[in-house]
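Reminder to self: tokens first, then the designed residues, so the page reads top to bottom the way the pipeline ran.
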């Protein structure tokens, strides 16, 4: 029977679809945990001027803003002295953007505009044409347009109010690509998958799944963070169908047991594989209150005495009396239930987890951010 174009699928894509349909329920796609080398963004940066501000621009002490304004006026054929320039409606800014490697001339980019002087607000400003350059010093994009600022501020002589940050704004689609990045994507003979979180087990699992789907030894784990894959002959010079199929292949990533603690906010996150050996924990808060006061002793009328100030200190100490609690976690749910039984707050959990790690009962990496 002859297959028509409607019901024919390349063997590799058909195999990948079969594996995806048979993947476990809690599996994730390769595209969610890894990226392809070469498929990346490139950072662009430039220096420009924002005009049209309602008196919220840079002050007279901003020498670089004055110099930039004078140079711009000179290029436009307007001769003016620096002393005659008023820059309260102008702000010097840094303009940044991220340019995908596949961007072509004419592609629109979102740009971010940030004040570098002492301007108080960029609300209502318009960015003048600014060249955005790459790390090689070449201009890849031009940016211009009105700013969108998500903050506001208002104030008077005695008080002021500010919401969010009003010295940073964005211009959606404000950058236009003028030069493409020289990169021939389809001419590659091999691809490298870079994992966002390095793990030898996950890297090996990706390589094995790719080999099973492609029916040959095309992929191999290079290290804990990367998998190298040779391009099959039928996909040479046509990598898009191959990548579209590979990135949707599902696996079960394996990560090391880790507890992440943010002491600034009191946030505690426990990974899926965190375990605690049987341990007895008693945790009680110690609260000490110190109150200072002064006793004033006044002499009698017409006496030769002097006023005496005597300091007085009251100290109150209270310590909670909590019993020992057995804590053991063979699963994450058992671990959570055991810690909740102690009645500890998130701040208390930080101290408890550190003590458990010091005793050797916590079988996980404790990371403080």
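Designed residues (369 positions):
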């Amino acid at each position: 029977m002859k297959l028509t174009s409607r019901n024919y699928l390349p063997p590799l894509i058909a195999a990948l679809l079969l594996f995806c349909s048979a993947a476990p329920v809690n599996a994730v796609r390769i595209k969610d945990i890894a990226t392809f080398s070469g498929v990346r963004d490139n950072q662009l940066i430039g220096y420009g001027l924002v005009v049209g501000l309602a008196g919220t621009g840079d002050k007279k002490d901003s020498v670089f803003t004055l110099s930039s304004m004078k140079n711009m006026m000179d290029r436009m054929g307007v001769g003016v002295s620096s002393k005659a320039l008023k820059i309260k409606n102008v702000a010097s800014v840094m303009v940044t953007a991220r340019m995908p490697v596949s961007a072509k001339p004419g592609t629109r980019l979102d740009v971010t505009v940030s004040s570098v002087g002492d301007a108080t607000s960029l609300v209502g400003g318009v960015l003048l044409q600014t060249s955005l350059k790459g790390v090689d010093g070449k201009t890849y994009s031009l940016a211009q347009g009105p700013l969108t600022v998500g903050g506001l501020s208002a104030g008077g002589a005695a008080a002021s109010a500010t919401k969010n940050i009003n010295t940073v704004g964005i211009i959606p689609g404000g950058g236009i690509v003028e030069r493409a990045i020289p990169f021939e994507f389809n001419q590659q003979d091999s691809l490298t998958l870079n994992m966002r979180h390095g793990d030898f087990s996950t890297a090996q699992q990706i390589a094995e799944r790719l080999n099973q789907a492609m029916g040959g030894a095309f992929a191999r784990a290079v290290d804990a963070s990367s998998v190298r894959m040779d391009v099959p002959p039928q996909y040479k010079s046509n990598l898009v169908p191959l990548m579209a199929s590979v990135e949707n292949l599902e696996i079960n990533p394996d990560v090391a047991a880790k507890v992440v603690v943010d002491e600034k906010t009191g946030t505690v996150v426990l990974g899926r594989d965190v375990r605690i050996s049987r341990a007895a924990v008693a945790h009680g808060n110690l609260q000490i209150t110190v109150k200072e006061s002064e006793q004033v002793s006044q002499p009698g009328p017409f006496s030769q005495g002097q006023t005496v100030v005597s300091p007085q200190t009251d100290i109150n100490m209270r310590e909670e009396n909590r019993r020992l609690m057995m804590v053991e976690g063979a699963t994450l749910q058992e671990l959570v239930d055991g810690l909740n039984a102690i009645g500890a707050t998130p701040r208390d959990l930080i101290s408890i987890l550190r003590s458990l790690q010091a005793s050797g009962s916590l079988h996980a990496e404790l990371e403080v951010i």
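The two ends are 63 Å apart (CA to CA).
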